[in-house]
Amino acid sequence: MSQTLTEDKVSIKTWSGQSIPRKEDGRLVKGQGRFADDIRRHHEAHVYLLRSPYGHARIRAVDVSAAEAAPGVIATLTGAEVHFLQKPFMQIAPLPGGYIEDYCLAVDKVRFMGEPVVAVLAETAEAARDAADLVEVDYEPLPALITGEDALKDDGPVLHGKVGSNVVWHGLYDWGSIDEAKRKADKIVKIDRLHFHRFTSTPIECNAAVVEYYPGSEEYTIWCNNTMPQFAAMFMGPALGIPTDRMHFITQDIGGSFGNKITNYVYIAICAILAKKSGRPVRWTEYRTDHILGGSHGNERTFLDIEVPVKNDGTILGIDARAIDDCGAYPRYEPLGSVIWSQVVPGAYQFRNVRVDYTQVVTNKCPVGPNRGYSRLQHLWMLERVIDIVAHELNLDAVAIRKQNYIQPEQMPYETPNGCVYDSGDYPRCLDLALDLIHYDHWRQRQRELSGTGKLIGIGIGSTLDSGTNNFGQARIINHDLPFSGNGEVSNVKLDLYGEVVVTIGTTPQGQGHETTAAQVVADLLGLHPDQVRVLIGHDNGRNVYTGFSGTYASQFAVTGLGAVRGAALKLKNEIELLAAGIFGAAPDAIELVDGTARVKGKAEMAIPFIGLANIVFANNATIPDGLDVSLNCTYTYRPSFKIPDVERKFGNLTLTYATQIHACVIEVDEATGETKILEYGAADDSGTLIHPQIVEGQVHGAAGLGIGAALYEALEYDAEGQMISPNFYAYKAVTAVDVPMIKTAAIESPSPFSPNGAKGMGEGGGAPLHAICSALQDVMYQRTRAIVSDSYNPAERVYRLLRQSETANRGVHVIENRA
Amino acid sequence: MTEPAKSKTIRVTVDGIEYTRDVEARTLLVRFIREALNHTGTHFGCDTGHCGSCSVIVDGKVVKSCMVLAVQADGADIETVEGLANPDGSLHPIQQAFSQYHALQCGFCTPGVLMAAKYLLETNPHPNEEEIRRGIKGNLCRCTGYVNIVRAIQSLANEEEVRV
Ligand code: FES
Ligand code: FES
């Protein structure tokens, strides 16, 4: 009788789906996390990087003699030496963009303020910094290139001579027939220019690494916070002439990344060279100023000559635009962003005719790298701007036009014009939920009541898709020769000697709770409590399993990581059942796993605890039932099913899952100062089946917080000489607790038909607050000057100016009646 | 005139243990705690005093330890995140609330936020939302949007008797 009860309980109560306390919290709240800068090695030495004060300059001479003679200095490293010791890092772009030469220290030219020029290694961090003051660098300043549009002009500076221009990559994306759509349209809405600004998620933990070289095995041990270590290995290995198996990456706790730490391999390479040169463990931790100057920025993108064919009823037929993406001085992860945006070509909408003439250029600014919402948020922002502008120019309701043009739930799975498959979702319902959260009807009413009183209320919406689990085959659209496709993650689940359940994965979590969710999945399959499952976090290619894709980026863990964990746990479960069946002479399907024991169903006396099973296999194997070949050590690689995209048509399924995030907000704008205050903020989320709702909600909060910061406070700006104006937290106004409201959330679950567990990758949020806040500001402007919100960054001074824009000024928007 | 001293011997109490160390005069308190004492629970996230991940309590007042020289802390009693839990390892109510409300993700800002929260609740046991937000304004968190941090502190602020 009690047997049945337990069974019922087990079948009803699964750990997956519950917000259990996170396993990682225990150490993190006690200050017992192990972050990269917490690593200490005996006899370690410290690096300081001397960086360029110029945006663009020729290096005439470098003199390190005084620095080398300074107390405590062990070694220095200059670009001239690096030129000899390192081959340029691999370029993802095909030629001629692929001619760009990128080294870990500047070689004969600096191309952005903050580019490292000389590395000094000393006994202490202070001695290294002091000695760097003694380095003499003779610069010849060159004119700097600051905007993407200027980079395309014929008479401006060229950053990388061998390329012949500043273009990294150019491609024409053309799906459906935009020309025919324009002929069929009632009107064409033309928007001259939209600009998506440069900002960064800038995690509170800066980049850091400790690198140690063992001459005996020629192996480099790299403790670091890189979040895609095998991508780093792919760049570092050929450049430094190190076989990738001799680069032993170890990551532990990571203090946030948001994609920003993927490209810190450039700095790890400096440490690796110095470790070998000096024979000392080399420790480097970036200063915040250096991180903002030379870490990794988000892509800046300008959209020009946007044309939107529409029907009078608000049906949008397509979009035609030019995009200029500014990747800073060196492409690094780029130009992958030049295709990644196309995971969400129509956003949440049904239009099928799209033409985007896309160019990526270099400028004298910090190199970009993936940044939460990477490359999709720029495009989604442009789409949402278009929707709002079209709605207002045609005098249509901003909610109605969205609902009318949204892809409907009954159309799922939905193939987009470029062959991506939206797996599931209900966008209209998410929008309704978001509007309920902000009390939409109430505020529309208030807005009417307040009209003419000087109080300005705006209501905005941001509809986004969070595409997750990349098909790396999309890289071939950028460069046909790249040997990448698909995706995958691997996990090992085993019993240890005394029956402990131990899980390893190749991922690099930075707060996403992988230890907890992996334990939930394993606990459910093996009949355990999550506390009984140990998950070894971090990437360790010396010991743990991994694939080339391993890491934590691009919203995929819930699918790839947990898919791998699930597969490995199922294998182990199968082995345990076979072993127990052999021991008790029962059929394998008569075995059940309950509370750390394998037992024959209905026979309480025929049970063996995991420690007993482990003992048989690991220390007592003369007793293994005849003919059984089990290891209790099971590895599984999860691979989503993907095909190589058609590179000519730029067509194919580029991501496996699409989570939905629809945000809505109410703002009040202070007429006198232009200051924006958020009165209500709501986010409706659909991430498929939820494994840990609280973690998912936390990701929604976090993405919303960063997005609000980017929309109103955070911008990386340069002056005409290439001097960064916001290189630290004085000037880079990272959003604080008083700047964000209580973000309200609602969630629905549309299980993904394509993922092993119905879950969807999520966490990036698609930049929804940028869209929602710009939308609300537009709503304000239409009550006043009808100015167009054409920039994603709207600090008080910009809003102030828009509020005072002359009614006769060129608004940058034209509606053309189609008389054809 | 004599040269100003380049280094000095200081005595501080950190989480109940007394240490005597020679320090260079220019050493920041955060570097002293992390490097000289190897107490890596207190973090270092910026060089301008903005992020708050280095927050500790010095003689009863919350202080950004990157904004203070170690020599200035001579004789001080310093509490860091590492001393927050009870001696038996069980969590302090603030730590517990942070875990329960999912007020930390990567956990890098957390040591500083916890100390700021402790100080806030010590000086104002029943803060309202606005006071909480002002109380942690000097602590940057890039992961949580501050929502659950505020909720966690609110859960303690609403308690009748707060043990801090
Ligand atoms: S490290 Fe002290 S405030 Fe940032
Ligand atoms: S939890 Fe990551 S910075 Fe706050």
Write up this protein.
The complex is a heterodimer of chains A (820) and B (164). With 820 residues, chain A is α+β, with helices and mostly antiparallel strands. Chain A has three domains: 3-33 and 488-638, Aldehyde oxidase/xanthine dehydrogenase, molybdopterin binding domain (Aldehyde Oxidoreductase, domain 4, 2-Layer Sandwich); 36-142 and 206-254 and 262-294, Aldehyde Oxidoreductase, domain 3, CATH 3.90.1170; 171-200 and 296-473 and 645-804, Aldehyde Oxidoreductase, domain 4. Chain A is built from 22 helices and 29 strands. Chain A has a seven-stranded mixed β-sheet with strand order 3-5-1-12-9-10-11. Chain B is elongated, with a radius of gyration of 16 Å. In chain B, strand 1 and strand 2 form a beta hairpin. Chain B folds into two domains: 7-83, Roll (Ubiquitin-like (UB roll)); 93-157, DNA polymerase, domain 1. In chain B, strands 2-1-5-3-4 form a five-stranded mixed β-sheet, with helices on both faces. Chain B is of the alpha+beta class and 164 residues long. The interface between A and B is large, with 58 and 57 residues.
How would the global form of chain B be characterised? elongated
What is the radius of gyration of chain A? 28 Å
Range of strand content of chain A: 15-25%
What is the number of helices of chain A?
22
Segments of chain B where pLDDT lies below 50 for 5+ residues?
Answer: none
Number of domains of chain A: 3
The CATH topology label of the largest domain in chain A is: Aldehyde Oxidoreductase, domain 4
Helices and strands in order:
The complex is a heterodimer of chains A (820) and B (164).
Chain A (H helix, E strand, L loop, with lengths): L1 H11 L12 H4 L16 E7 L5 E7 L1 H5 L3 E6 H7 L23 E2 L5 E7 L2 H8 L3 E6 L6 H4 L15 E9 L2 H7 L2 E10 L11 E7 L4 E6 L4 H12 L6 E4 L14 H14 L3 E4 L2 H7 L5 E11 L7 E9 L10 H4 L12 E9 L14 H18 L4 H8 L8 E2 L5 E2 L4 H11 L2 H11 L5 E15 L4 H4 L10 E7 L5 E5 L8 H13 L6 E4 L20 H28 L6 E4 L2 E4 L6 E3 H9 L14 E6 L16 E15 L6 E11 L6 H20 L31 E5 L19 H16 L12 H8 L9 E5 L3
Parallel strand pairs in A: 1-12, 10-11, 14-15, 20-21, 27-28
Antiparallel strand pairs in A: 1-5, 2-4, 2-6, 3-5, 7-15, 8-13, 8-29, 9-10, 9-12, 13-14, 16-17, 18-26, 19-20, 19-25, 22-23, 23-24, 26-27
Helix pairs in contact in A: 8-9, 12-21, 17-18, 20-21
Chain B lengths: L6 E8 L2 E8 L4 H8 L18 E4 L2 E4 L12 E3 L13 H8 L9 H14 L5 H7 L11 H11 L7
Parallel strand pairs in B: 1-5
Antiparallel strand pairs in B: 1-2, 3-4, 3-5
Helix pairs in contact in B: 2-5
The structure holds FE2/S2 (inorganic) cluster (2 copies).
The site of one FE2/S2 (inorganic) cluster has 11 residues of chain B, from loops.
